[in-house]
Amino acid sequence: MTKLTLESLEASGFEGIIREEPLAGGMPCFVHHREAGGWCEHTAVMRAYDMNFCEAHGAEIKAGVMAEIYHDAYNVLTDLARREHPDINAVADAYLTIGRDEMTGRCTEAQEAENFALLKAYPLREDLVDTETRHHYEAPDPRNDDPSDVFSRARMHALKLMRLSWQAGEYWTLEGLELGRQGASVQLAYALALDARRTASIA
Questions:
Q1: In this predicted structure, what is the pLDDT of residue 201?
Q2: pTM (2 decimals)?
């Protein structure tokens, strides 16, 4: 029996969620959200959740899949550590700590890769920026929630629902969830770009 490791899970595309393999016939990329500018015109080079993606959008969803899985793993381990286990032994407790520390590092790396991929996949379109996001970055003293946090949570939630649907065999839900994920991803990318521009203007 093959021993599962984080490396082997990544190499397997987390058991088939991500499939980086040549696609025949010049299939189109599935990204088509109106806030991303409509249908992507690039040819697909990989698949995620049985949908086709070009190089840039494929890197973006791959980074998102990894970030969601590692964040969820961290939350599971943290939840286990917070429960009262009067009979837990020191070895089990130590391994929970090791696991959380490992996931903390993986989450940080995944988020950095995710932000980089988002900015590359969805270049800023001023005309398509969410109204509240625009107000947040134009106001001298913004009072609404940070758009990066809002859209990051929405994106992560959509990715988790996609993973759970995939694991449950409810494949018919994936395309609808993917469209919602694209909307959150686009607006997160725009918010990250506007935040970087504002930071650069202050420096």
A1: 78
A2: 0.89
